[in-house]
Design brief:
Elements (H helix, E strand, L loop, with lengths): L9 H17 L4 E7 L17 H8 L2 E3 L2 E2 L4 H10 L3 H4 L21 H9 L2 E7 L18 E5 L10 E2 L2 E2 L2 E4 L18 H15 L6 E6 L11 H4 L6 E4 L5 E4 L1 H24 L6 E7 L23 H4 L3 E4 L9 E3 L3 E2 L3 H8 L21 H6 L7 E7 L7 E8 L2 E8 L12 H12 L11 E5 L16 H17 L18 E2 L2 E2 L13
Pfam families: Sulfatase
InterPro entries: Alkaline_phosphatase_core_sf, ARSB, Sulfatase_CS, Sulfatase_N
Family: Belongs to the sulfatase family.
């Protein structure tokens, strides 16, 4: 049918079409793709280290925004709880460590998950593929009961990449809310193939079958490159068999970094496959892709955190400052740069809510009034300043031997870090940064050489000393003393806000094994077991 618009000059037609397209996009909720990897250190991605082949990740990161100050927790479960709830781990009981297979810990129902918010308040379809690691002692705490329309993956912290088993038992399932009940224990024994590639196959299926009239949230949580070190042989052959590194005690050790990097390359291939399918289905035109690791790399397994000190399991930068980026074809007004603004795992929930159309003033949302995350859309989309100037690293005094308090805070252009307690083993200090950082510190303060540690207290100017070579706690410079006192006050103010760790003791395997599968249970399941 001929229209009046077609009779006008061509430039008017094009202008009207462009205006309609822009207006339509502005009123659509974006598709959100959150991709998490496991145990990837700062130098385990190609745009930071050309030794590892990650062309797809490099392309997305270099054409998006690379996050230089992307903070998480030093191990898996606390980071995942922060992302899922928008709250610090010490507010939800996940501050003490990872959730083991026979540990009755979970996200309490009083905390809305990011999937629940997006599906219930903003009309999203939500699917999860990969690693959960947030507890499964009863059906109602598993992904399809916490907002996800489907879950394809495993509940625990790791498993064999080919057999999908851990400790001889199976932990792989295919849960669909379309089935009644929501089959949280529906096992899959017919899965065949390397798990990284199996996960992306399911992700591609979800994308192909998705109704484009509805916004999509896909959480793709790869196990890789977490141990066990396993990868297709053709990828392992791309790399040397081992590397030598300096361990925390100063000794020289070798690690199978070749297999580790092969696992990273497999993730890169999987992300490339998903990216291409999103392009094919037209889902990238109004979408954002977020990529992050859940904690730092483990050198003994092949991880490489240079120039950051420490490793997974420590509160040095190498344990908590990880690779990450955001990419979008249409939503970013500034691209192809690195942003140094502070960002925390808890920020993703309010940021996604804001992208979905939620109020930037999250205090108006009853579900979000007590969250710790902040809306980072201005930082991510427009290159603005970070919406936060402080990150609480952790508040955990459950066990005296592992007590840890920590905070990072920005003062103008300087970023300082204070930790009290068990920061972790001494940590690798990469020699490539020692000289320059020492000069930077002397230029800043001209202070006397500081003591190594004072009563397990540590103070680092991480904006100049990202290798955390020089502990400035106890320095007599008035400016440093003022900062030290302020950070100690921040920690003291945060301590009363911590809740006890969520069921930190293990129950024993008989409670959660059913016909050879790690299993939840109806009702209260085995959540009330006695350790």
């Amino acid at each position: 049918m001929q229209t009046v618009v077609r009779k006008g000059p061509l430039w008017i037609v094009l202008w009207l079409l462009a205006a309609c397209k822009t207006h339509g996009q502005a009123n659509q909720k974006p598709n959100i793709f959150f991709i998490a990897v496991d145990d990837m250190g700062n130098n385990d991605i190609g745009y930071n280290n050309p030794e590892v082949e990650t062309p797809n990740l490099n392309n997305l990161g270099n054409n998006g925004v690379i996050l230089e100050s992307n903070y998480v927790y030093p191990v898996c479960s606390p980071s995942r709880s922060a992302f899922m709830t928008g709250r610090y781990a010490h507010k939800t009981g996940f501050q003490h460590g990872t959730v083991e297979h026979n540990q009755p810990a979970y996200i309490d129902s009083s905390y809305k998950t990011v999937a629940e918010k997006l599906t219930q308040s903003y009309g999203y379809a939500a699917h999860m593929v990969g690693k959960w690691h947030l507890g499964y002692c009863k059906d109602s705490v598993t992904p399809t009961y916490r907002g996800f329309d489907s879950f394809y993956g495993f509940y625990g912290g790791q498993e064999n990449y080919y057999t999908y088993k851990v400790a001889r038992y199976n932990d792989f399932r295919d849960n669909l809310t379309a089935v009644t009940p929501k089959n949280p224990n529906y096992p899959r024994e017919d899965v065949d193939g390397y798990s990284t590639f199996e996960y992306v196959k399911r992700a591609v299926e979800i994308v192909k079958n998705h109704d484009k009239a509805q916004p999509l949230f896909l959480y793709l949580a790869f196990q890789a490159p977490h141990s066990p070190l396993q990868a297709p042989q053709e990828l392992i052959d791309k790399y040397p068999g081992s590397w030598t590194y300096t361990d925390t005690d100063g000794s020289q050790k070798t690690t199978d970094r070749g297999t580790f990097y092969a696992m990273v390359t497999a993730v890169d291939m999987a992300v490339g496959t998903l990216h291409q399918e999103l392009e094919n289905q037209g889902l990238l035109d109004n979408a954002i892709i977020v990529f992050t690791s859940d904690n730092g790399g483990q050198p003994k397994e092949g991880g490489f955190n240079n120039p950051y000190r420490g490793a997974k399991g420590t509160f040095y930068e190498g344990g908590v400052r990880v690779p990450g980026f955001v990419y979008s074809k249409s939503l970013l007004t500034k691209t192809s740069y690195r942003h140094r603004g502070l960002l925390h795992a808890s920020d993703w929930l309010p940021t996604f809510v804001s992208l979905a159309g939620g109020s930037a003033d999250l205090t108006s949302d009853n579900d979000l009034t007590s969250i710790d995350g902040v809306d980072q859309t201005q930082m991510l989309l427009n290159g603005g300043d970070s919406a936060r100037s402080k990150i609480v690293l952790n508040i955990d005094d459950f066990e005296r031997s592992s007590t840890i308090y920590g905070v990072i805070k920005q003062y103008g252009p300087e970023v300082w870090k204070y930790v009290q307690g068990n920061i972790g083993r001494r940590g690798i200090v990469y020699s490539v940064t020692k000289t320059s950082k020492k000069r930077a510190l002397k230029r800043s303060f001209k202070s006397e050489r500081p003591k190594r540690a004072v009563n397990d207290k540590y103070l680092y100017l991480i904006s100049a000393d990202s290798s955390e070579t020089y502990n400035l706690y106890g320095d007599t410079t008035p400016e440093i003393q003022d900062i030290q006192n302020d950070l100690e006050d921040e920690v003291e103010a945060e301590k009363p806000k911590a809740v006890p760790p969520m069921n930190p003791y293990n129950c024993g395997t008989p409670n959660n094994l059913l016909n050879g599968f790690w299993s939840a249970g109806p009702g209260e399941g085995w959540c009330n077991c006695i350790a």
